[in-house]
Amino acid sequence: MDWTSFFRSELTPIRPYEPGLREEQICGIAQTPSIHKLSSNESPYPPFPTALEAMQQCLPELNRYSDGSSYALRQGLSAEYGVPLEQIMVGNGTNELLMLLAQACLTPKSRVAYCWPSFIVYRMGAQVAGAVYDELPLTADGRFDTDALLRAITPDTKLVILCSPNNPSGGIVMQEEYERFMAAVPDHVLVVLDLAYTEFVTESEHLAALSCYDGVRPLVVFHTFSKIYGLAGVRVGYGFAPVPVIEAMDKLREPFNVNTVAQVGALASLGQNEELERRRAENALERTRLCEAFDRLGLAYFASQANFVWVFVPEPEQSFEQLLKRGVIVRAFPGGGGLRVGVGRREDTLATIEAFDQLFGSEA
Ligand SMILES: Cc1ncc(COP(=O)(O)O)c(C=O)c1O
Predict the structure, then answer these.
(1) For the chain, what is the domain count?
(2) Which of residues 269, 285, 319 is at a domain's end?
(3) Which atom belonging to ligand 1 lies closest to the Cα atom of 194?
(4) Pocket test for ligand 1, best of 70, 89, 90, 95 (most atoms within 8 A of CB)
(5) pLDDT tens digit sequence for 194-243
(6) Which domain holds residue 218?
(7) Is the peptide bond before 117 cis (omega within 30 degrees of 0)?
(8) Residue 222 · residue 54 · CB < 8 Å
(9) Nearest alpha carbon, ligand 1 atom 3
(10) C-alpha to C-alpha distance for 118 and 163, rounded to whole angstroms
């Protein structure tokens, strides 16, 4: 078999997603027994207690298929956000929803615009569809550049993605910028707002998730249970969109795309505002602690509203290896000039700061 021309040529440039390293992968490298996994922007805490209990209770029912319409969860989301049921979609992580949307909209001639660096799945979705992707620089302070995105729109542009807070920089789009952007964006463009980290935001000027959403204008808003809700392992994300968008995506969606444990856990996580607030405050405290250490060490970083901080270091690849030896797993992106350091619990912060002190402190 000659495999070289067997597969779709659009797949040639795609590099499979490389997940952050896991604890067990660095056992032979780390010179310390305590490992701090800060590489995948996960929550350092378990799922909410209500979610854990609900998920445990549903285990005996796993002989049945999951609810293919995620009805109860969509009802819960509808009550929580005041968005009609038929405008709500649920996916096997936001990741699945982003890929479905790309498949549903993009063709080889069409274009998608977003800023870069950002979430790799935006690029993958475009590549799988063979579409053109316009990757524009972030602002100097690591935020999506809404003016540049507006200027990049052409008659062939179908999607413009905004990520706020952005992964990996942590920068946000402010309400006023967002409103200006939404007022100017032409109506042949579907705007995709990815709010995966929005629950960590403490800045009051951050855009409000549903402020421009009316279920009619071309706007999709994505959220996930993978981050502050601590449900990354079961995979569940959701989105709000006009009905035609959801109908198109439903044609491509697997019939039982969200498993029962995920649906039950996500539903039981809703309305837990005290727990949510506690986790947001905890994250902000540890984020500040990390940034204070970077300040002390003279390391520049992007002001972050998420659960990670992008810090500029002289030789990122080498620093990444050095941190691994000290049991701290972060993320280096090729050519990125820095490291994305996840915000964890207090003990993770202390270990990270100690390792950074050893690498970049005056004694180093
Ligand atoms: C910006 C952004 N959007 C979406 C996702 C996808 O989240 P999930 O597929 O776990 O819901 C991630 C995950 O890291 C992300 O960083």
Answers:
(1) 2
(2) 269
(3) 3
(4) 95
(5) 999 999 999 999 999 999 999 999 999 999 999 999 999 999 999 999 99
(6) 49-269
(7) yes
(8) no
(9) 196
(10) 8
